[in-house]
Design goal:
single chain, 5 strands, alpha+beta, five-stranded antiparallel β-sheet, Thiol Ester Dehydrase, Chain A, 132 residues, 3 helices, 25% helix
């Protein structure tokens, strides 16, 4: 295992992502999540959304990407979970943030979240990063 020089309270991010409709179609294919709210605007509107919405798992992927880029080579999640609290819309910025909640020599616990353009937290995540 490697070692990291992180401290409790250290901020991670931000990473700004903007999902396109094409990104959502590709993600639907790779994840087998073909819910129409993710790529058919008319259907999404009929379900009460202003347009198509970004997959929750895709937003979790953005959070994992940000944290692992911060952690550096050899980092991996030994634990990762996410909950979805709100929507992010296709074509709008999704801001990814995080904070170290516990730091040890070979593992770091993190809280991660996404924010939409209204600065609402839309995805909440917790995880443990370790190094090889």
């Amino acid at each position: 295992m490697g070692e990291i020089n992180a401290v409790k309270g250290e901020r991670i991010g931000p990473l700004t992502m903007v999902a396109t409709k094409t990104d959502l179609v590709k993600f639907a294919g790779s994840s087998q999540d073909f819910n129409l709210i993710h790529y058919d605007a008319d259907y999404a509107i009929s379900r009460g959304f202003p347009t198509v919405i970004v997959h929750g798992f895709l937003k979790a992927g953005y959070l994992a990407q940000m944290a692992l880029e911060w952690a550096g080579p050899g980092a991996w999640f030994s634990e990762f979970g996410a909950t979805y609290r709100g929507v992010d819309l296709v074509g709008q910025p999704i801001l990814c943030w995080g904070v170290v909640t516990k730091a040890e020599k070979d593992r770091v616990e993190v809280e991660l979240w996404t924010e939409n353009v209204a600065q609402e937290k839309t995805t909440l995540s917790e995880g443990v990063i370790q190094w090889q």
